[in-house]
Write a structure and sequence with these properties.
This protein is mainly α. Helices cover 53% and strands 0% of the residues.
Amino acid sequence: MQLAWLYLVVARVLNTGRMDVWFGPYLINDIKESRLTLTKAQELVDNLWKIMYEEGHNFNTRVILGGKDREDPEV
């Protein structure tokens, strides 16, 4: 998530797009390997949104989650 944030800032990306596709596989793998809990994952997402808001990108930080067009719906 830190690397994704760094990329978004450096590349001046205004629309984050499908973060569920970006982070979903890592979430599932980290939970399976007991490196992360759902509570900690939620805390990380909350903190990312807080940073985005504080940076003044609150209009452009909309994110698409779920839906039929996902690359890996199981994740």
